[in-house]
């Protein structure tokens, strides 16, 4: 009967711990990236070499109570919820983001990131650096400090498109913005005058100073290859810009209406970072105020042979046994894809937790009843003394 009391007490203890696991799951219902654990119990056995009174999970044949398991993490994908931050990242798949903290490596399913004063991309509120893959496939921390600005590029070509009416006498394309080597902008204007020997093209700058004059010719409405590309050199700005008419420019009758335009102008001014986000290929992309984009490297994703062997700590995961992971890039089917402006919600199933809660409560009540009945029987046994 004393043994029954101890068995009942093991039940009270196990179901109390089971309640803690369920409570932890439920309380983290809205914790970003949280993975719920499955509550389970196993039988305890007595070891004959210790007189049958020691409780252990090995050996023996008689049951001596119950014990709660540590709990197995459920890595089912949580809902990916939209946000308005480019550096809110999540993984659509089974992979894990890799975080570097000195010599330690941590893993996360999702997280809000920011740029720290040193230029490293870190998880908000921590010093954990987001890892990218280098050329050899190793996980390295990325600093954008050296890439905070985008160097200017001088304009070398202006590409024209559409039609220059063959019956028009003149036409002008204004507001052609070109950039010199220092990134300074210059506004040019191209005047087209129809003459007997073709179109005279005169380019002037924003001060009205003539940059240069060239002749553009057409053969049956098609640009003469000999004049398809015209160079204009500006000594004041140090620019030599090629006007390219070879890509679909025509000269057909259309009354006095022309649609010729500067479709593309290369070159740009200096720029500063305006955004950092993960692109569709899972690479960090830096966007600048001058419209340029720079690839910052592929975000490292870890694939584990058995994710259930990971330990969950403060919304992050650590390896119990190092060396169980493989580093891959986004889009690999083994890890999935990195999503920007997404955070993964908790995967806790509330209905399942309430079901477990009821079962744990019933188990606790039954175990307490065993203790109560055993105590009553012992009291009755003590009362036998003196009866006869």
Largest β-sheet summary: 6 strands, antiparallel
DSSP helix count?
Answer: 2
- What oligomeric state is this? single chain
Please indicate the percent range of residues in DSSP E strands (runs of 2 or more): 35-45%
Helix percentage: 10-25%
In total, the number of domains comes to: 3
Our measurement of the CA-to-CA distance between the termini, rounded to an integer number of angstroms, reads 23 Å
Which class best fits the helix and strand makeup?
A: alpha+beta
Shape: rod-shaped
Low-pLDDT runs of 5+ residues are none
The average pLDDT score comes to: 89
Rg is: 37 Å
* Number of strand segments: 33
Give a description of the structure.
This protein has 388 residues and is an alpha+beta fold. The protein is built from 2 helices and 33 strands. The chain has 3 domains: 2-75 and 347-383, no CATH class; 81-144 and 298-344, no CATH class; 157-265. It has helices at 2-27, 350-383; strands at residues 37-38, 41-46, 55-56, 63-68, 72-73, 80-82, 88-92, 96-101, 104-108, 110-115, 121-123, 129-133, 139-141, 149-150, 157-161, 170-179, 185-195, 198-204, 210-216, 218-219, 222-223, 229-234, 239-244, 261-265, 271-278, 283-288, 293-298, 301-304, 310-313, 316-319, 325-328, 337-340, 342-344. Strands 8, 9, 12, 13, 28 and 31 form a 6-stranded antiparallel beta sheet that branches. A 4-stranded antiparallel beta sheet has the order 11-10-7-32, with no helix packed on it. The chain is rod-shaped, with a radius of gyration of 37 Å. The two termini are 23 Å apart.
